[in-house]
Amino acid sequence: MRGDGETELAESTVGSGTERAESTVGSETERAESTIGSVTEFAGSHVDSRTEPAGPEWWARAVVYQVYVRSFADSDGDGVGDLAGVRSRLGYLELLGVDAVWLSPVYPSPGVDHGYDVSDPRDVDPLFGTLDDFDGLLADARRHGIRVIIDVVPNHTSDQHEWFRAAVSAAPGSPERARYHFRGGAAPPNNWQSVFGGPAWTRVAPDDEWYLHLFAPGQPDLNWAHAEVREDLEKTLRFWCDRGVDGVRIDVAHGLAKAEGLPDDRRQPGWTVLTEDAPDPRFDQDGVHEVHRLIRGVLDRYPGRMAIGEVIVRDDARWAAYVRPDELHLAFHFGLLNCAFAADEIRECIDRTLAAAGDTPAVWTIANHDNPHPVTRYGSLERARAMALVTLALPGSAYLYNGEELGLPDVDLPDSALQDPAWRLSDGVRRGRDGCRVPLPWEGEGPGYGFTTGEPWLPMPESYGELTAADQLEDPVSTLSLYRQALELRKEHPAFRGDEVEWFGAPEGCLAFRRVGTTLVCALNTSERPVPLPPGDVLLTSAPLEANGDLPPNTAAWLA
Ligand code: GLC
């Protein structure tokens, strides 16, 4: 249960955030004041998905903020973020203007893949807190008008899950082993590679059977043909829905079912195969859709809840199957996330994503915990800011990754600090994903910059000291202020309607689109020279315009 001290902490955070914001924008324009006005209004309105008015479901247009819990805010000084930390920063998230948070896994876990190796899907790891902390977070989030989506990991468990421990102690051919993929033989049963690198098969003991793990050896794949595996997922979904979560993100939603008979991978095996066009016997098998129908069946019994899948499937027609009416509500299409900063490519990605999504709302994201921060990927803060405006102008929902709103770059960590299994298992071929998981700088000085009073689990560089949330809240032209203004406009301005995109002609290296049926135009300049803006009143730009009103390189603008 939450103590009084914690209540104070949560409330005082909101209080100081609001005050700070008011003083920041007091000297700004009228529009900025109205931003704050409606944030306050929003704070007062209790949101309950169970009593929502008719209209598009909340998730269709939501801006969702991914909290990588380990790296967000640490309440107890152990250097690792936790649920009480998230609770203490809800005021910040409300001020930012997001509709929901997606929490990375907080279940009991040995932490081989930082929580994506789950040993009990219906509890909270002491590292992150308790089930009471989770309930408290849910209740507080609701008071702040923020919904909560959790991460569900059905493809695999931890090797410390009671099922796998029982399987290891049991004999080959036993019912305990049937919940996973165990095979005998002198050599691995097939040539499959793990996504992180190295073979996808490990022996439980020198003379014993092999088990399948498409990720780290500590993440054995479940056998989805097994009834108990399915029943257990239903139980997990009901457990969290009963507690009141608003949605689930399905990890590796393209995994689960494996090709019948586990045949050899006939393509060039390797960890990159996940994104190749040719059929992959490890992923996107037809049998997976039965599981998604099961998930939908459970969620349909809880009004207002949703499921969003991590669906990494190149073929758009096959991708679309995951969001059929009786399957997942939404799916990530990673086109834009993998797209270079080049107008033609971006335009093509947008068209492809919209076409694939069809009648379901599109999901836009340029950042998550598996990819370099946009600043690093695009090569500059200016470009990342411009892409934020492009993403947030598109119809559908948008998913932000914590730190994106601060314009954090990836950190080039020393080898001794690296923790991601993708680094170790690829024999260092891949640097891994730690660089985008360095904790958030909130305020003050290192080593913890307000993230922790101890030593952060990944070292935070001095450069993060110039990017703290506290400083950026005070600065009207900071990246945080840009995101706040963008989210406010997206929510309140009448031009942000319409589900279709219409393209305008644009100079080479530029793009301009309109939300059909509205006046909103988004223009982006990826070329090396300034270009004239389309007609309209400028609502927001990612960088100052040229003196003559032209749109500079690496800049986007919203007009209405
Ligand atoms: C997903 C997660 C990633 C994790 C993997 C295995 O791709 O986003 O972080 O390593 O699944 O669970």
The bound ligands are: alpha-D-glucopyranose
In terms of structural class, how would the helical and strand content be classed? alpha/beta
Estimated share of beta-strand residues: 5-15%
Question: How many strand segments?
Answer: 16
Neighbour order of strands in the largest sheet: 9-8-7-3-2-1-11-10
Gross morphology: globular
Descriptive notes:
The protein is α/β, with parallel strands linked by helices and 560 residues long. The protein contains 16 helices and 16 strands. It has helices spanning 4-26, 30-44, 69-72, 83-88, 90-96, 131-143, 162-169, 227-243, 288-299, 316-320, 343-357, 374-378, 381-393, 421-425, 469-474, 479-492, and strands at residues 63-67, 100-103, 147-152, 182-183, 201-203, 210-212, 247-250, 306-310, 330-332, 363-365, 397-401, 501-504, 510-515, 521-525, 538-541, 555-559. Strands 9-8-7-3-2-1-11-10 form an eight-stranded parallel beta sheet. The chain has a five-stranded antiparallel beta sheet with strand order 12-13-14-16-15, with helices on one face. It has a three-stranded antiparallel beta sheet with strand order 4-6-5, with no helix packed on it. A hairpin with a 6-residue loop joins strand 5 and strand 6 (210-212). Helix 1 packs parallel to helix 5 and helix 8 (227-243) runs parallel beside helix 9. The longest helix is centred in the first third of the chain and has 23 residues, at 4-26. The N and C termini lie far apart (48 Å). Bound molecules: alpha-D-glucopyranose (GLC). The site of alpha-D-glucopyranose has 9 residues, from loops.
